Amino acid sequence: MLAALAPPVQQARKHYPGATFFRGGRVCGTDCNKSNGSSPHMITRKNLIALRSGAAVLALGVTAGGAFAQAYGDGGGSATGSNAVALGPNSEAPGDSSVAVGNNSSANGVDAVAIGGDEDGNGATATGNSTTAIGGESVANQPGNTALGWQSMATGAFSNALGHQSSASGAESIAIGEDSSASQLGAIAIGGNNDSDGDGVADAGAGASADGIDAIALGAGASATGPSTTSIGGESVTNGPGSTAIGWQSAATAERAQAFGHLATASGVRSLAVGEAATASSDNSTAIGNLAAANGIDALAIGDAAAATGPSTTSVGGESMAMGPGATAIGWQSAATAERAQAFGHLATASGVRSTAVGEGATASGRESLSFGNLASATATNSAAIGNGATATRANQFTLGNSRNTYTAPGIASSASRAAQSGSTNFVTSDRAGNLATSSYGPSDIASLSRGMDDLADDIDRNREGIAMAMALDAPYVPVDSQFAVSSGLGMYGGSTAFAISGAYRMDANTQFDAGMTFGSDSGDVGGRLGVSYNW
């Protein structure tokens, strides 16, 4: 800007040799008509002024010092750059081809544009080549910057701010919307104030904010803090490198956390929450579904209102629940509520440590218990119930099916099954309640018993034959007047037959001796007898 606003004509000739001056205060450049002083750049008001070739002013106290510069208005507007334009009191355009419009506006840079006045002395300010500031108190102070809106500020290299009090202070950043802020390299904030309390008045300080390299905040009150963060949606929040929050009031507040949906919250490192009010609060946790919650390292909850609480828990299905380290619940309203418990099926419940329940309504409540089948129940330690409606209530009990079941084991009589057995074998026994056990004896005992019975049968047969032999054998009588007698006999009993022959000798009138032999027809056994009789 020229030091003297109205030098004498003599001084003007000295300082501006390219200009032509006339009496009466009319001054024009070298292109004027010297006969009448007319010129396209004629100064029409009397005052002390100084011009360069081709410059024009149209007000008191205004300076147009650059070649073909234009300055208009009362109060000291100054266009000192070539082809510059300054319009308004105290406006200044010192840069070549710059434009300053509005009181106290300033365009200080080649091709700079500042439009907007302020009665407090804070007009639009565009500082730097190709900068643009439009709006009262707007500021663009780095080459190529653009600030549009009252009190907007674009202060980072090649940054852009659009909206009342918007601020783009990071290099190559963009802020759009009232109170929006983009403060780091490549950050983008889009969204103005919102009315969170419903009083019809925009809340102060609630514009979008992107504070991180390559951060993006889009939506009223959206906030992206940290490098490569992304917040899309009103009041969405990201606070951790690489985190993403999409949806109204969604929040991703840890490194690489991801939240998608209204009120979705991912607060664990590398956590993922998808769905309205879904929550993933631990490292590497995943919650997918409305109201789903994963609260534990590596926890997984999928389904509306699914809940996985504890490290390495898995809950899949609406209203399913896995609570306890390593617990798994799969199925609508399934529940695994102890360490490493497993529940599969609608309403399946595994509440014992390391228990497993499979089937609709299956229950495994004993430690290390197993229930497999619809409505199967294993309630004691290490018990197992297999089959629909099967029930195991004693420790170490194994129940297969129920009282209405029949059982088929096609391979039980196969040679392969028999070959698989080793050592002694026993018989399986059962009581009325279906409790199974094995006897103390087995097939070998039956074989031995069978042999004994066979021997007994043989003995019985031999006894029958012996009776027949006894019946066949008799003692012949020798009359007193005789000395010898011989007899034979045939005996039959119980199907056995025997033959006998006997002889007798009379020694005297009172004494007799006899002997006999008998033969069994079935076995060939031989029997005999000796006898003596004495009479008197």
TrEMBL record:
A single GO cellular-component term on record: cell outer membrane
Any one GO BP annotation for this protein: protein transport
Keywords, comma-separated and alphabetical: Cell outer membrane, Membrane, Protein transport, Signal, Transmembrane, Transmembrane beta strand, Transport
Keyword Protein transport: yes
Localization of this protein: Cell outer membrane; Cell surface
TM spans (from-to): none
Comp. bias (Low complexity): 122-136
Superkingdom assignment: Bacteria
Stated name of the protein: Uncharacterized protein
Biased composition (Polar residues): 225-244
InterPro entries linked: Adhesin_Head_dom (IPR008640), Pilin-like (IPR045584), Serralysin-like_metalloprot_C (IPR011049), YadA_C (IPR005594)
Residue ranges of the region described as Disordered: 116-136, 224-244
Trimeric autotransporter adhesin YadA-like C-terminal membrane anchor domain location: 476-536
Organism: Pelagovum pacificum
